[in-house]
Amino acid sequence: QVQLVESGGGLVQPGGSLRLSCKASGMIFTLRTMAWYRQAPGKQRELIAQIDSGGIADYTDSVKGRFTISRDNAKSTLYLQMNNLGPEDTAVYYCCAPRANYWGQGTLVTVSS
Known about the structure:
Elements: E1 3-7, E2 10-12, E3 18-25, E4 34-39, E5 46-51, E6 57-59, E7 67-72, E8 77-82, E9 91-97, E10 102-103, E11 107-111
Parallel strand pairs: 2-11
Antiparallel strand pairs: 1-3, 3-8, 4-5, 4-9, 5-6, 7-8, 9-10, 9-11
Protein backbone atom coordinates (compact mmCIF):
# COMPACT_ATOMS: atom_id res chain seq x y z
CA GLN A 1 0.00 0.00 0.00
CA VAL A 2 0.99 3.63 -0.33
CA GLN A 3 3.11 5.04 2.46
CA LEU A 4 4.42 8.55 2.96
CA VAL A 5 6.77 8.82 5.91
CA GLU A 6 7.93 12.24 7.06
CA SER A 7 11.01 12.91 9.14
CA GLY A 8 13.19 15.82 10.19
CA GLY A 9 10.88 17.75 12.47
CA GLY A 10 11.88 18.97 15.90
CA LEU A 11 12.59 21.98 18.06
CA VAL A 12 14.52 24.85 16.54
CA GLN A 13 15.27 28.38 17.67
CA PRO A 14 13.90 31.40 15.79
CA GLY A 15 16.06 32.14 12.78
CA GLY A 16 17.14 28.53 12.51
CA SER A 17 16.72 25.96 9.77
CA LEU A 18 15.33 22.47 9.35
CA ARG A 19 15.01 20.08 6.45
CA LEU A 20 12.02 17.80 6.28
CA SER A 21 12.02 14.59 4.26
CA CYS A 22 9.18 12.43 3.01
CA LYS A 23 9.92 8.93 1.78
CA ALA A 24 7.26 7.55 -0.54
CA SER A 25 6.54 3.92 -1.33
CA GLY A 26 3.80 1.96 -3.04
CA MET A 27 3.20 4.53 -5.76
CA ILE A 28 4.90 5.84 -8.89
CA PHE A 29 6.51 8.84 -7.24
CA THR A 30 7.94 10.33 -10.41
CA LEU A 31 4.49 10.89 -11.90
CA ARG A 32 2.97 12.59 -8.88
CA THR A 33 2.61 16.22 -7.99
CA MET A 34 3.71 16.33 -4.36
CA ALA A 35 3.03 18.90 -1.69
CA TRP A 36 3.71 20.00 1.84
CA TYR A 37 0.88 21.16 4.07
CA ARG A 38 1.01 22.34 7.64
CA GLN A 39 -1.46 22.71 10.46
CA ALA A 40 -0.74 25.11 13.27
CA PRO A 41 -2.48 24.76 16.65
CA GLY A 42 -6.07 25.91 16.39
CA LYS A 43 -5.84 26.56 12.65
CA GLN A 44 -6.87 24.83 9.47
CA ARG A 45 -4.44 22.78 7.45
CA GLU A 46 -2.88 24.90 4.72
CA LEU A 47 -0.96 24.19 1.55
CA ILE A 48 2.48 25.77 1.73
CA ALA A 49 4.42 24.32 -1.20
CA GLN A 50 3.97 21.95 -4.08
CA ILE A 51 6.12 20.57 -6.86
CA ASP A 52 4.94 18.90 -10.03
CA SER A 53 6.44 15.90 -11.77
CA GLY A 54 8.62 18.21 -13.87
CA GLY A 55 10.07 19.95 -10.84
CA ILE A 56 8.09 23.18 -11.09
CA ALA A 57 7.49 24.51 -7.60
CA ASP A 58 4.98 26.92 -6.12
CA TYR A 59 4.72 28.42 -2.63
CA THR A 60 2.26 30.22 -0.47
CA ASP A 61 3.28 33.82 0.18
CA SER A 62 4.14 33.30 3.84
CA VAL A 63 7.01 30.93 3.03
CA LYS A 64 8.30 32.33 -0.26
CA GLY A 65 11.99 33.08 -0.09
CA ARG A 66 12.43 31.03 3.08
CA PHE A 67 11.29 27.51 2.17
CA THR A 68 12.38 25.36 -0.75
CA ILE A 69 10.57 22.25 -1.90
CA SER A 70 12.49 19.67 -3.91
CA ARG A 71 12.31 16.06 -4.93
CA ASP A 72 14.70 13.23 -5.63
CA ASN A 73 12.83 10.89 -7.93
CA ALA A 74 15.57 8.25 -7.77
CA LYS A 75 14.99 8.03 -4.02
CA SER A 76 11.22 8.62 -4.13
CA THR A 77 11.77 11.35 -1.58
CA LEU A 78 10.31 14.80 -1.17
CA TYR A 79 12.11 17.51 0.78
CA LEU A 80 11.31 20.83 2.39
CA GLN A 81 14.23 23.04 3.31
CA MET A 82 13.06 25.65 5.81
CA ASN A 83 15.22 28.64 6.63
CA ASN A 84 14.79 31.69 8.84
CA LEU A 85 12.10 29.96 10.85
CA GLY A 86 9.84 31.94 13.13
CA PRO A 87 7.34 31.02 15.85
CA GLU A 88 4.56 31.36 13.26
CA ASP A 89 6.01 28.33 11.47
CA THR A 90 5.25 26.08 14.44
CA ALA A 91 2.94 23.38 13.10
CA VAL A 92 2.58 19.76 12.15
CA TYR A 93 3.92 19.39 8.63
CA TYR A 94 2.37 16.85 6.28
CA CYS A 95 3.63 15.41 3.03
CA CYS A 96 0.99 14.49 0.48
CA ALA A 97 0.19 13.51 -3.05
CA PRO A 98 -2.81 15.79 -3.29
CA ARG A 99 -4.47 14.49 -6.43
CA ALA A 100 -4.47 10.95 -5.07
CA ASN A 101 -5.27 12.08 -1.51
CA TYR A 102 -2.29 10.24 -0.06
CA TRP A 103 -1.03 11.69 3.22
CA GLY A 104 1.79 11.10 5.63
CA GLN A 105 1.37 11.00 9.39
CA GLY A 106 2.94 14.41 9.91
CA THR A 107 6.02 15.67 11.67
CA LEU A 108 5.99 18.38 14.34
CA VAL A 109 8.07 21.50 13.93
CA THR A 110 8.35 23.76 16.96
CA VAL A 111 10.08 27.12 16.68
CA SER A 112 10.84 28.51 20.09
CA SER A 113 13.66 30.00 22.11
